[in-house]
Amino acid sequence: MSGFLWKATVRNVNRALKEINAFEWEGDYRPEAANRLKELFEERMDEELEQYLGRAKHERREQGDREDYRNGSYLRHLLTEIGDLILRIPRSRKRFVSKVLRAYQRRSRLIDQLLETKERKLSLLKSVRILL
Length: 132
Hints:
Blueprint: H1 10-22, H2 30-53, E1 70-79, E2 84-92, H3 109-131
Antiparallel strand pairs: 1-2
């Protein structure tokens, strides 16, 4: 096999992740990346609420528009690969459900997958200890 053309196996993916984690980045990129990701989430959710209501943030309701109004926002923690983000989630008077974040979602999908994998490994280790 040549250089970077590995077969996608668990061993090779783990090896690639170790190489990436060992790479020295110039400066600390995480705060800026976390800030940009936070802004991106908040922008998308604001756009989604505007589309749901049919009007921009400070526009008045016209005849025939939905009878739903903005109702401020609330804070939610979201654990991501970059770190913990504190997001401002917009809400409306009637139940607006965002498609950007699932209801009650507190972790990104990758974090959930990592936790599931770790739980499987731990349960496998426990069962092996019981058998021995």
